[in-house]
Task: inverse folding
């Protein structure tokens, strides 16, 4: 695992953007695996700036998002569809038909899981997959105990995950109980994984990731099984390692 320790969140976001823009220079039609949540927001701002100021083009890029809440349609303000449009897609020149996010309100969620796994295989695998990490070590919404052999599936969100994400909803009870997520095996198909972690709240998870061993009780440890992972942390998240 290649580790980059950035001084602060802004520097972390710039490092991540640099890696993605270098990838786009190498291959115009790159496939990017994307995450939601707070951590990649700075990265997305940097990418928007790169598009505006450095003419970085997304015309031929395809994207695959990790997950979506079950029960929210794609126009719901807290859906990851709206999140991605607002935070990135509306501000770069990517044709929306080249962006892929699982549907959380499909009439058959089982069929939707199968469909999305096929999309990953047809469009992907991602050249770069951006990941955040939950305080409990989740990647995507693969909560502790998820199989490392899992593909796209419906998952019940851990209580701590719903609590952590309550900040985006008007009340904690409004946070969906389930999500559709790429499985760990689907995530590991990516050619290069960029794991981002910022802030003291992530320090314990990063310490466990860097000192532990592969174990389904700690989903991020599945990354040990991948040959090309870059962890970008800020000093706050890396603190306990010093
Ligand atoms: C988001 C996702 C989650 C988040 C994780 C960290 O698509 O799959 O695994 O990356 O919950 O969230 P933040 O960045 O809000 O701390």
Result:
């Amino acid at each position: 695992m290649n580790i980059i320790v950035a001084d602060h969140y802004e520097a972390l976001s710039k490092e991540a953007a640099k890696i993605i823009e270098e990838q786009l220079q190498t291959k115009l039609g790159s496939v990017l695996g994307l995450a939601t949540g707070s951590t990649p927001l700075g990265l997305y701002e940097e990418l928007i700036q790169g598009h505006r100021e450095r003419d970085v083009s997304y015309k031929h890029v395809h994207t695959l998002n990790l997950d979506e809440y079950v029960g929210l349609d794609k126009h719901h303000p807290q859906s990851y569809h709206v999140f991605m449009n607002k935070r990135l897609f509306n501000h770069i020149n990517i044709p929306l038909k080249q962006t892929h996010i699982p549907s959380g309100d499909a009439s058959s969620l089982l069929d939707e899981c199968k469909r999305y796994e096929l999309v990953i295989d047809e469009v992907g695998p991602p050249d770069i997959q951006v990941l955040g990490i939950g305080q409990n070590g989740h990647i995507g919404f693969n909560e502790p105990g998820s199989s490392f052999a899992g593909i796209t599936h419906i998952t019940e969100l851990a209580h701590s995950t719903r609590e952590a994400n309550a900040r985006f909803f008007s009340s904690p009870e409004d946070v969906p109980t389930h999500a559709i997520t790429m499985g760990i095996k689907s995530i590991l198909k990516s050619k290069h994984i960029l794991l981002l972690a910022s802030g003291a709240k992530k320090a314990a998870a990063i310490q466990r990731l860097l000192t532990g061993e592969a174990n389904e009780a700690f989903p991020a440890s599945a990354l040990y099984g991948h040959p090309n992972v870059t962890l970008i942390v800020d000093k706050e998240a890396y603190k306990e390692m010093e």
About this structure: The CA atoms of residues 198 and 237 lie 5 Å apart. The two ends are 17 Å apart (CA to CA). The chain is about 35% helix and 15% strand.
